[in-house]
Write a structure and sequence with these properties.
- By secondary structure, this protein is of the alpha+beta class.
- The protein has two domains: about 55 residues; about 210 residues, Cupredoxins -  blue copper proteins (Immunoglobulin-like, Sandwich), CATH 2.60.40.
- It contains two helices and 16 strands.
- The strands form four sheets. A five-stranded mixed β-sheet has the order 5-11-10-7-8, with no helix packed on it. A four-stranded antiparallel β-sheet has the order 12-2-14-15, with no helix packed on it. Strands 4-3-6-9 form a four-stranded mixed β-sheet, with no helix packed on it.
């Protein structure tokens, strides 16, 4: 073999070897990058596992506040509502309806008291609408609490003209007529109203209702027998508020443990 041919073969061999090494380097680099990526993913997973999200309070651990609102003293005699100006309204009450400002049961229980937890955590959003019905030319219910963002359905069950004039202090007021029986309007409040506000009808001056807007579902109203109940409350220390349109507001401190059934009594004096 001539020297020239030998050198040509040697050069070809070295060139092939260099190309093979370069490809090997590329493979190694890709492997190193893949390993680094896997290491970063592993570190991120480990960090997430080390700081888990706070778990919500299980319903099984939640507490319930059951209560009674009493009235002390002689119950005031509420006047009959003068509905004669609207014959339809008068026809809906064979016995004249009485003003609902103070409703006291036979055992001295006080109805229409809004009770809520003042410092409760923001709870789950309401999935069912609240309802304000105009029936018999009165508002039903007379008092209620709704949640921020909850749909409020306003119904006219009467065959007469009503208008709903809501007068919140923080949210926007609205004044909407409902001239046709069966009409339904929907409203929402996007801010908390920490003090109950009045809803009235400008057509029928005796019609009134009271409403509060809360950021959570931990509220109730006292029934005709004075009872109320607030369920699914996370264990903790709270301030419980009871509000009546004539007799004002009271507060009590209450502590509830896991699965505890707490009994609370409010007494309003006439």
């Amino acid at each position: 073999m001539s020297a020239r041919k030998y050198l040509s073969l040697l050069f070809a061999f070295m060139l092939a070897f260099a190309l093979a090494c370069g490809k090997g380097k590329e493979v190694v680099d890709e492997g190193e990058d893949d390993g680094a990526l896997k290491t970063a993913d592993t570190a991120a997973t480990s960090t997430a596992a080390a700081t888990p999200a706070a778990a919500p309070v299980a319903v099984a651990d939640a507490a319930t506040i059951n209560g009674l609102v009493k009235f002390e003293g002689a119950a005031p005699n509420m006047p009959a509502i003068p509905m004669g100006a609207d014959p339809y309204c008068a026809s809906q009450h064979p016995t004249p309806a009485k003003d609902e400002e103070v409703v006291v049961g036979p055992g001295g229980e006080l109805a229409n008291v809004i009770v809520w937890v003042k410092n409760a955590p923001n709870g789950p959003a309401a999935t069912t609408p609240a309802v304000l019905d105009q029936r018999g030319c009165q508002y039903h219910p007379h008092v209620q609490a709704v949640q921020v963002g909850q749909t409020l359905q306003i119904k006219n069950s009467d065959n007469t003209l009503h208008n709903v004039h809501a007068m919140p202090a923080v949210n926007s007021q609205f004044n909407e007529g409902q001239p046709v029986q069966g009409m339904v309007s929907e409203k929402k409040f996007d801010k908390v109203e920490g003090t109950p506000f009045r809803v009235k009808c400008d057509v029928h001056g005796w019609m009134k209702s009271w409403m509060i807007v809360l950021p959570h579902p931990y509220h109730s109203t006292s029934a005709m027998n004075g009872t109320f109940s607030i369920a699914n409350l996370p264990p903790g220390n709270y301030t419980l508020v009871a509000w009546h349109e004539k007799y004002g507001q009271q507060e009590q401190q209450v502590t509830v443990g896991a699965k505890e059934q707490k009994q609370i009594t409010f007494t309003f004096k006439g």
